[in-house]
């Protein structure tokens, strides 16, 4: 029996971890014991606890409760806490997801103690070094024993950076391994889609009709912290909702909700709040989010995860960033990079709302978790 420590710290990582935990419970319980460590990077009832309950993920065995803070301060606290857990009992490996500060902290702590690191969502690149996430994912890839890339593009990124021929040798004289595993979020999206149909009441609650509304999410700090960018995004949302008489549902990240009052002019806030077509929602559960994504006409987002889920559910996507790690979406004309620019957002809506597009199977066969666990067991 091998024991792994899964490190999570943000809501998307909790969701991703559901796929692996479910596969361990159903198919690997005789070979793998999983313990879960929540760093507390993001933690409140709406954003974390409800996800454990709704997705049937085991409650964390450890919670560091580090809370928010400056990048260095937050990461340092997490490194110290993760190191203490790794020293307290033997683990055969550490599973890390994505590109948060929790990912970075887990990679540093585990590598110093020679515990193998298994990085899920390896090889993603925005090539924008201003993004903290880009730094985190690059460092984690460099320190990982197995890199589980979700797409062919991610594998190509790693190949271009020399990972396939890198001479790095890890503890126990083991070499780094790279695999295209497919995407664990595709596993989850397919698994929970039918459950959401039965359990979510969010469309009825807010009077939304299938394929007749836009779903918008905004949470990236370079959008929320910038008065200019946030203003352009909400001006575009207001214009589209008002001009085309289409409802826009916006589940607001708590941080975004706070910054709206700071970074938007009072007149714009009032116009947005008074327009019946714009629905400002509190943070929603994972099943409610799936229901919104499946039933939206179009999705606007600065979230990498939501971009993918739009593609999974065959919805066109306006990307509120200057680049994307998921270039396949743009290359297949299923998404347009509009950044935080009023004219580009409106133009993207006009193009995507009338386009016919295809959604080829780019993210695996919904068996990524099994592929990952097979490779971990073999390692």
TrEMBL record:
Gene3D superfamilies: Glycogen Phosphorylase B. The keyword Chloroplast does not apply. Residues 30-376 form the UDP-N-acetylglucosamine 2-epimerase domain. Keywords: Isomerase. InterPro entries: UDP_GlcNAc_Epimerase_2_dom (IPR003331), WecB-like (IPR029767). GO terms for molecular function: isomerase activity. PANTHER family: UDP-N-ACETYLGLUCOSAMINE 2-EPIMERASE. Belongs to the UDP-N-acetylglucosamine 2-epimerase family. This is UDP-N-acetylglucosamine 2-epimerase.
